[in-house]
Design goal:
There is one protein chain. The protein is an alpha/beta fold and 310 residues long. The strands form three sheets. The chain has a four-stranded antiparallel β-sheet with strand order 1-6-7-8. A two-stranded parallel sheet has the order 2-3. The chain has a two-stranded parallel ribbon with strand order 4-5. The chain is globular and about 55 Å long. About 5% of the residues have low confidence.
Amino acid sequence: MNEKGVALLITLLIIFTLVGMTVGFSQESGVELNLAGFGRDEARAAAAAEAGVASALSVLNADNPGMDSLREDWGSFGKDIPLEHGNEIAVSGFIRDECGKMNVNALLTTDGSIEPSRRKRVERLFSLLGLGQENLDPLLDWLDKDDDKRMEGAEDFHYQSLEKPYPCGNGPFISPGQIKLVKGLGKISLFGEEQEKGLDDYLTIYSDGKININTAPKLVLQSLSEAIDKGVAENILEYRKENNFETIQDIRKVPGVTAQIFAAIKDTITTKSSAFTIQVEGHCNGAVRTVTAAVSRENETIRILYWRVS
């Protein structure tokens, strides 16, 4: 091979090497640009979700705290949230009343033991949900301050023996997700889906302990008293379709709610709500971010108790 041939071969090798490097750099740059674009879309989705929460808070601020029902504006807050974003951004969400649920922290007395009458209501609720003593006892053991294990329960020894150990609470729950740590409850869907309800539709840690009869689901209403059967609970739901309970005495207007039933539940019910959960999803070009906030309302003042972005 002459000198010109060698020179041509070397030149071609250099060109091929440069082309390969250029293609490699282009691919890497494309990946980086895609990642940067997705990161931008995630940030915009999160910003949209936070704006949705702000919109929900404004709805709650405008609400009359004297009575709360699902027929009010906050009850219909949902799919069409008024946010001014581009067509590529979508927002959906809801406001959920926490006072329509059983507050498991309210089971505790000031000395750290379990209050018997409230335990009976939660026991009835668990039974209606198809949950047994193997689910209830660990919940009670987690809450009470002692280390005495109930027959179907679990104390610190059980949790410290797990592959990834953690201590038993022996006190009130500090977040809804902590309920999943309780033996027997981690396998149960905690966060309800559109077609199937979960424990979070029935249990809370945020309310003042009283049940809002304007918002409580059927099974929570049934758990208030052994005398409230499925038929009476359905009568309450039917009444709510066209009417609000302005005062707790209004429940006497419902067929089947006798004087005896009212006397048994009057100290445990209310028509006002002191706590709400707001959940809003922001979507942007395939990126999804969800903001969940729990808020309390007292004397027309709203305070954020919990904030999570996922």
